[in-house]
Amino acid sequence: MKNTYILAIESSCDDTSASVLCNDKVLSNEVANQEVHKQYGGVVPELASRAHLQNIVPVVAQALKKAGITKEELSAIAFTRGPGLMGSLLVGTSFAKSLAMGLNIPLIEVNHMQAHILAHFIEESQPKPEFPFLAMTISGGHTQIVKVNSFFDMEVLGETLDDAVGEAFDKTAKILGLPYPGGPLIDKYAQEGNPKAFTFSKPNIPGLNFSFSGLKTGILYFVQKNTEENPNFITEHLADICASVQHTIVEILMSKLKKAVKETGIKQVAIGGGVSANSGIRNALTALGQQYSWQTFVPKFQYCTDNAAMIGIVGYHKFLEGNFVAQEVTAQARLSFN
Ligand code: KG4
Ligand code: ZN
Description:
Layout: E1 5-10, E2 15-22, E3 25-33, H1 45-67, E4 76-82, H2 86-103, E5 107-111, H3 112-118, E6 133-138, E7 143-150, E8 153-159, H4 165-175, H5 183-190, H6 213-229, H7 233-264, E9 268-272, H8 279-292, E10 295-297, H9 309-321
Parallel strand pairs: 1-4, 4-5, 6-9, 9-10
Antiparallel strand pairs: 1-2, 2-3, 6-7, 7-8
Helix pairs in contact: 1-2, 3-9, 4-6, 5-7, 7-8
Zinc ion (ZN) binds next to α3.
């Protein structure tokens, strides 16, 4: 069969990314991170869209160059339609539409959260989940447990009622005076700390839903109180605070996963999204898998945080189905699965 070459574009938040896939294999996956947000302690939407505009042409050119193909060889263009920041999504969407029109090739819309899940199907000779499986998507914008029945049939079994787990990491980091995005830094310091040094109360949310806003407030009061007594409290106990917060978050996530497995009887469990780069979460999932005989799936680091390769793998499977969209398609900040 003839090879399919997909150019994929991701611009839903603060990473501009382009990737070229040959069938289900990644030939290139370029990501331009936007440093500009660091000084503001979070993503500033207007600055994000401006940076996407600056990045998109060179990032796409680099992805094609690394893949060693010309744009005339492309079979289709896939892009993130949503969910995400409207201004950011518009840049990738408009670019993808124009290029597809110029090249006269099909255009494929991709749901960002579906892509975090289907990233597991990028071919790198690794074991892949079989349908149906459970996927926990944990990112800066989302926290969901999803039952994945097939590539395009997904059911959300539970989700956060307030903050996403990535926000819990990033807001904790901000309270501790660490720069944005703080998740990776908490992970780093946690590795040198005692996870049982401090305890934080966990939310009591029914079913498979989550809540992280109470934890954030609890951490804020804890830090304020201790800093009043000892102004050097954070610096003296940074590793222990990070380890204890991470441990609490890991326990919240894992207890819901155990519940989801129990309720569905599905023992194949995958994680996806930026927060699945977290070492505590990766280790805990692997340990639970061994304890309860689950098959667990953890993506490579480069496919955890936002990247266009995951958009490309969804694009490839939609291409096989002939699932294309017309030029009338628009970006959608809120976009559900089905
Ligand atoms: O999926 P992603 O790149 O973007 C969104 O779609 O939101 O996720 C970004 C989130 C940020 O909140 C970041 O702090 C978090 O993922 N993150 C981590 C780690 N690496 C990235 N959180 C905890 N530990 C990490 N190692
Ligand atoms: Zn994401």
